Amino acid sequence: MLQLAWGLALLVLLAGASAVLSAWADLDAALLPLPLLAGAALLSYGFGVAGALRIGAVLAFVLLATLWVVGLVRLRPAGFAKACGAELRQPGLALFVGGAAFLWVLFFVQQPMFTQWDEFTAWGLAPKMVVERGAFYVADPVNLKASFTYPATSLVTFLSQPFGLWAEWACLAALDTLALACVAAAAALPRRRWYAGVLVFAAGAVLPYFFSNPTPGAYATQYVSAMADLPMAMLFGGTFCLYLDVRDRRYAFWLTALPLALLTLTKDICFAYGLIAVFVIALDQLAAGQGTLRTRLLPVLGRAGGLAVVVLAAFLSWSRYTAAVTPTVDTAASVGSAGLSYGAVLAGGVRQLLGIGREEKFAQIMAAMGDAFFTRRVCLLGAGAVAVAAITVTAAAAWLASDKTGRRRVLAVHLGFAFCFAALYAFHLILYHYNFSDVEGLALKDYDRYLAPYYQAWMLTMLCLLGRAAHARLSGAAVGGAAAVLLAVFCWRGLPAAGFWTGADSLYTLRADVQRRANAMNTVLDWNDRVLVLSQGDDATRWYYYRYELTARVVNGFGGFYGRLGETQDRWDSDFMNLVESENWTLYDYKAVCVPATLVAYMAEKDCDYLLIDRADDYLQREFSPLFEGGLTNDMPATLYHFEGEDAAVPFTLAVVAESEVQ
Q1: Can you tell me the distance from the alpha carbon of 44 to that of 136, in angstroms, rounded to the nearest whole number?
Q2: How many C-beta atoms lie closer than 10 Å to residue 314's C-beta?
Q3: 461, 445 Cβ separation under 8 angstroms
Q4: What is the spatial distance between Cα 584 and Cα 575, in angstroms, rounded to a whole number?
Q5: What's this model's pTM, rounded to 2 decimal places?
Q6: Are 184 and 242 within 8 A, CB to CB?
Q7: How far apart are CA 34 and CA 41, in angstroms?
Q8: Which residues are 535's β-sheet partners?
Q9: Which tens digit of pLDDT belongs to each residue from 526-583?
């Protein structure tokens, strides 16, 4: 209940602060939740780097509340209430507040949980650690490598859960709040054009579904995901939409810089996304600014240079911070198993693109990428070529509905996005060559997921330009047509059988089983404890669930052969492991051959405090029973054992037994 109250309180603070600033700056209040939320996250980020994350979050709330107080004093209660009421009658802010409040209440009732693999390995685990530990996972990594994720999603989540009480549903609601703030910036239209604002907001909310390749009947995770894809796409498009409205205002630089910095801190690829946004902003100013091109050039370069510095500063600050607090190989800026620097990868990729020393693998991937643009589905209508055509049609409508200056703007922005998309496409070709195995690279692993955020932001920008076109009637009709097509295609080909509006209990069966077991173990575990997890027959799923659920440091296992004490040359580091006999290697896909003495030696080598046997089998029962208090059986419940040391008569003593509903 505390998370719901705090989430709704955050919405109230954002709405009131937006109304106050709107009255002072003569801006549509729908534009302000995005920079305010980004500013609060960045303030927390600065304090988090200094090791005082909770103080930063408290200060952010104090500043938002101060805006309320100042507004009440300067506008007086009646004027403040009038300002809030007037702004809430604007479509953008009302839809943002109403939509976000609806999701907070809905998720509180449904209690959705994470379902995607990467949420347990990185994107959900990172905010969980930040909320529970009150510090960046980089300085306090526990079960997460420092290089895995960037901090933006964790920061936004932390603002909604600053008290250390973790709830997955609140994390999902917080990220959706950020996404809706971005859509609100696109839908910030005057009250007299409220219908266009509503249509842009509705179309923007559907875009994550439109630019997807859904599996028929599958659960749609677009708004129930801790992954960075939705925040990245919305921040990329929302930042530019915000700029379109404030570009001539006094505080345009800072209002644009705040979400731009947060975008850069969202994912590693977002350094490129941030620079793309700066480039397109510069094109817009050159195309539609006042005066001759010569007189505009230096001011445009100065403003664009300032925004580029913001992007670079955000990117370097996180890189330097991770390198400072965890100076290990995990934080090194490298790509692929060869450990090449980004510069070496880019230089090598450009040479191969030009045909200089082109390798066969690169040529094959390049051919696959060329073919994929016309054949691989990235949206409900089909492949990337179809998506670009749909975006271009929207841009053409915006061009027709604009005046002379607006037409230059639409043309420059659309062509700028197209040029940068081609560069980004080539960049992903290079990454597939250097950063993926031969099988994954040639299969273009996660192709649609990598490119969908760009398409989504591109379309959101075109819808925003269409809604802001000078010829209101033509613009309104065109926005209505575009929104109608998006919604019709969504209902026709993309309406999921289940999504954020429905429960997903069937997806949580395995998770709930591990969670029940982990909760029993957590009664004796502490964050300083080191635990080795064994789950015979596991494919890593249960291991990663335990790594997420246990309030302890889960020690990595090994693969290969460790059958002689002191001889480790046939062993390699891994994450999860199954213990098997040498003659039974075919039983498991993942093999770690181990005998009783070497299990004890490995526990001592890794300084483990506990061993958790999630699931046993005949091999453990037959060979390892003498090492354990009470022995082992192949059908035993999940049991936590304390490791007494190599010299103990019985190395493993009983700590906790956890019964389970699922075996």
Answers
A1: 11
A2: 25
A3: no
A4: 21
A5: 0.91
A6: no
A7: 11
A8: 615
A9: 988 999 999 998 888 999 999 999 989 999 888 877 765 555 667 778 888 888 876 6
Complete edge-to-edge strand list for the sheet that includes strand 571-573: 571-573, 558-562, 592-594, 579-580
- DSSP type of residue 612: E
Give the residue among 236, 321, 221 at the shortest CA–CA distance from 273. 236
Cα separation, 279 vs 302, whole angstroms: 12
pLDDT at 343: 72
Counts of helices then strands in the chain (DSSP H, E): 24, 11
pLDDT digits (tens, 9 = 90+) for 26-72: 788 899 999 999 999 999 999 999 989 999 999 999 999 998 888 77
332: left (phi over 0), alpha (psi -120 to 50) or beta: beta
DSSP per residue, 32-50: SHHHHHHHHHHHHHHHHHT
For residue 176, which of 275, 104, 245 has the smallest C-alpha distance?
104
Under a CB-based contact definition with an 8 Å cutoff, are residues 143 and 133 in contact? Answer: no
Q: What is the pLDDT of residue 460?
A: 96
H/E stretch holding 244: helix 229-246
Q: CB of 559 within 8 A of CB of 574?
A: yes
Looking at the DSSP assignment, which residues form a beta bridge with residue 658?
A: 638
Residue at 291: amino acid letter: G
Q: Is the pLDDT of residue 465 over 90?
A: yes
Cα torsion angle, 379, 382, 383, 387, sign: negative
